[in-house]
Amino acid sequence: MRETRTNFWKHLAQQPWGLWWIQGRRLVRIEVRRNLFSWKAAWIYFLAFIPTFIILIHLVADRHNATWMSDDTNVLAGIVQLYYVRLGVFFGCLGIFSRLIRGEMIERSLHFYLLSPVRREVLLLCKFVAGSVSAVLLFGSALLVDFALMYAGFGAAGTDYVFNGPGLGQLEAYLAIVVLACLGYGAVFLLLSMMFKNPTPAAMLVLGWEAINPVMPSILQKISVASYLRHLMPVSVSANGIFALLTVQAEPVSAWAATLGLLVLIAVVLVYSCYRMRSLEIRYATE
Amino acid sequence: MNDQIIFEDVSKFYGEVLGVNRVSLSIPPGITTLVGPNGSGKTTLMNLMTGLVQPSSGTISVMGLSPSNSPELFRILGYCTQFDFFPRGLTGWQFIFDSLMLHGMSDADAFQLTVEAIERVQLGDAAGRKIAGYSKGMRQKVRLAQAIAHHPRVLVLDEPLNGLDPMARAESIALFQELGRQGMHLLISSHILDEVDRISDRVVLITGGYLIAEGSIQQVRQEVREKPMQVLIRCDQPAVLASKMFAINHCVEARLHADGRGVFLRTADIDQFYSMLNGIAAEGLVKIEAVAPADDDASAIYQYLIGSDGSAL
User: Fold this and answer.
1) How much is the ipTM here?
2) What residues have CB less than 8 Å from A261, skipping those under 6 apart?
3) Distance (Å) from the C-alpha of residue A53 to the closest C-alpha of chain B?
C-alpha cells in the first residue's frame, strides 16, 4: 500500500508539469482572446451589463435617501440571486463553454488543437480555465460596477456603508458567488456540449432542474449549482409568488460546506469530461 | 526508433458504416501516395494514424508511437487535413505562430519557424491578412505551412494540391519531393493520378475500405500480372499487326492510336506477347518503330484493380 502510494507520487513528479504550464498559459491566452474579442461574444456582454445599465438609470433618475439604502441592498441581492445566478451567468456560461469544444466541432477547427502536442486532458482543462477567466472577467466586472453604482447615489452614507459597514463583505460574497457560478455552470455546460450535438435542450432541462431544486429532497439538492450558491448569499432575498420558489431556504448549510460541495461537484464533472475527451473523435461530417 | 508507419489488421466502423476493413500496411520513409475514389477510406486511414479517430480493432504505430492521445507523436508529425476551416478571426501568421507556441517553444523560436514556414510555401505578405479573406489556394498554403512549420519527420497531406493554381501546384510538388529526399515520411492522398507517378516512391491503392495493392508502381503492376496489360506499339501498319496478334491468340483487345501510327494491344501474357512480336518484326511484314507499356502508371493499374462501379475485383 505504502509502495503504491510512493509510486503514485513518483509518477506524478515525473510528469512534464513545466511544459503543461507553458502550454496551458498559451492556450488560455488564445482562448480568452477568442472568447472576449469577437462579435459573437456581444450578447454575453449584453447579458452581463444589462443590470448595470438599469442601475445607472436608477442612479441618474431616482432620488437617493440614506433611509432607502436597505431597499437598494435588497434589490442588489435580488439581482445577484435571481438575475445573475439564475439567468445571466447561466446563459452566459452556456454561450462561452458550449463553444469551447462543440463550437469548434461545428466550425470544424477542433482538429488543429487535437493535432498539437498537448495532452487532451490538459487541453480540456485549459479550455475550461479560459472559459472561466472570460466569464469571471465579464460578470465579475459587471457586478463590481453594479455595486459601485448602487451605492454611489447615497454619497457619504453610501461610502460609510461600503467601507465601514457590511458593504465590502457583501461585495466579496457576491463576487465569490459569481466566480463559483461561472465555474459550476461552466463545468456542466462543457460536459453537456461534449455529450450532445446541441446542448441547448439539455441546458433548458438544467435550468428547470435548478428552478425546482430548492423544493427537492436534500439529497437531490446536492446535484445543483444554485443550491450551493444560495447558502453563500450575504443578504437573504424575500420574494413573493413564483420567485418564492427560487429563494426557498430548505436546509441551512455553512458557507465553507457549500463552497466545498460545489468544488467537489465541479471536480467530478471535469474528471468525467477529461475521460470523454480522451476518446473524442473528429467526425465533422456527422455534426 | 522504428522508422515505419505500421497498420496491423486495422478496421474502423462508423456505426454500421465501414471506414476501412482489416488493413495491414507497413510504410517506409519516402513519398507514399494513397490512391482511391471518394469515400474509399483514404482520409479515414490518415485520421486513424493521427489519432483523430480511434480504430474499432487493430493497432497502429507511427515511428514506434501510438497515435492515441500522444503528444510525443505530434512533435514529429504534421497533418495537413482537407478540412478547409480555421479558428475564427486569425491571420495566417497568428495561425502558424499560435500552433507553434503550443509546442512549448520560446517566442523567438516560434517567430523564426513561422517566418521560415511562410517563406517555404511562398505565402508572402498575405500572411498578415485574416485567413477569412484568403483564396482557396492561399488557405491550402497556410494549412501546409502550419503542418511543416515545426519540422516534422512525418508529414500527412490529404489532397494537398486541391485548389492550387498550376504554378503553386508545381511549387508544392517540388517541395514534397525535396522533403522526401530529406528522408521524411510523406503520406499523400490524391485523386489526381497523373501527379502520383511524378512524386511518389510507392502507392497504396484502396477502395471501399479495402486495401487492394501497395508497393512501387512497378511492384503493384507485378502483383496484378495476371490482369491484361496494355502495350503501345508504334509501327507503319498497325491494323496488320493487330490482326496478326489476334490470329495467334495473344491479344484480347486492340485499339488504334488516334494518329493512326500505332496500336494499343492488350495481352494476358506479356512474355509470350513480346516473343510473338519479335517474330512478327523478324518477318519484316510490319516495321516496328517503338514498343512501350501503355498502362504502367497508377491510373491504369487502378482501373485494372477496381470495377467500373468502383468495387474491388
Assistant:
1) 0.77
2) A222, A228, A253
3) 29
